[in-house]
Amino acid sequence: MGSLTDPRYIRALCEKYDFRLKKSLGQNFLHDNAVLEEIVDAALPEGGGVLEIGPGFGVLTEALAGRAEKVVAVEIDDRLLPVLADTLAAFDNISVVHGDVLKLDLPRLLAEQFGDMPVSVAANLPYYITTPILLALLEKNLPLRRIVVMMQKEVADRILAAPGGKDYGALTVAVQYRCEVERVCRVPAASFFPPPKVDSEVLCLTLRQSPLVETKDEAYFFALVRAVFAQRRKTLVNGLANAGRFGTKEQISAATERMGLAPTVRGETLSIPQLAALADLLYG
Ligand code: SAM
Known about the structure:
The protein is an alpha/beta fold. The protein is about 40% helix and about 20% strand. Strand 5 (about 120-125), helix 6 (about 130-140) and strand 6 (about 145-150) form a beta-alpha-beta unit. Helix 6 runs parallel beside helix 8 and helix 10 packs across helix 11 (about 250-260). The chain starts with 6 loop residues before the first helix and ends with a helix. Bound molecules: S-adenosylmethionine. S-adenosylmethionine binds near residues 76 and 126.
C-alpha cells in the first residue's frame, strides 16, 4: 500500500481504477504532509467529529481519522467510491456518503451521523463552488464548532478583508458576521496533483456563540448588505435608493446623517456594525 501523499501512488491509483481526474469537479489532490497536519491541527485541537467535503482519494480523510472520533466524508463523484473503499479500508471510524453537499439535508446528516458529538468541517474545497458551500454551511446555522477550509487565495483575501478595500464585500460580511477568521497557511500550487493555476490558502472559521452584531431582522440586514455591494460605484445613498426596498433617498440620507456619515459616503467603507446600525434605522 502506497502513501496518498506520494504523487506516484496517486498516478498508480488512477491507472488501477482507470480514473481520470475531472477538472469540472475541482479534482486537484493535495500531497503535502505539512499542509495536511496544519489542517488536522486547526480542525481538531480537541478531537470530536469531522464532516469532510470532497474526500477525493482520501488523503485528508485518513489524516483526520487518525485524530477524530469519527469522520463523515461527502463525495459527489461516484467513481471515487471504490477507490475510497480501497484507500480507507484500514479505518473503522470513517463513513463515506455519496452526494452533493449543496443538495444534502445537512442538519439531518449531522444529527444522524454525529448525535451530540461536537463537529468541525474540514475540506479542500473545489474552487468553483467555495462560496456557495461556505454560505450553505453558515446560513443553515448548523451546530458546528469550526470550518477549516482550503480555498483559492483570492477568496481567502475577500473573507479576511477590512472595510474600504476592493476585497471587502458581501462574502466578507456573511462570514465575519458568524465566524472569527484566522489564516492557517498558504499553499503553493505545487502541493497538488495536478497543480491548479492558482495559489491556495487554508482558513479556520470559528463559529461565534452569537453573531458579531445584533440586528432587528437578519434577512433584511443581508438584503441591505447585498444591495450596498451590488452598487459599489455609487454613493451609499444612491445605491440603496436605487435598490427600492430600503426607503426613499431622503429617508436613507436622514439615516446616514444620524449615523454621522458624510452624504457622499460609499457603502463599502462601512464596518459590519455600521451596516447593521443602518439596517436597523431603515427597518420597518
Ligand atoms: N480532499 C481531497 C484532497 O485534499 O486531495 C480532494 C480535494 S478536491 C480539491 C475536491 C473534491 O470535492 C473532489 O473529490 C470532488 O470530486 C469533490 N466535490 C466536488 N464538488 C462536490 C460537491 N458538490 N459535493 C461533494 N463533493 C464535491
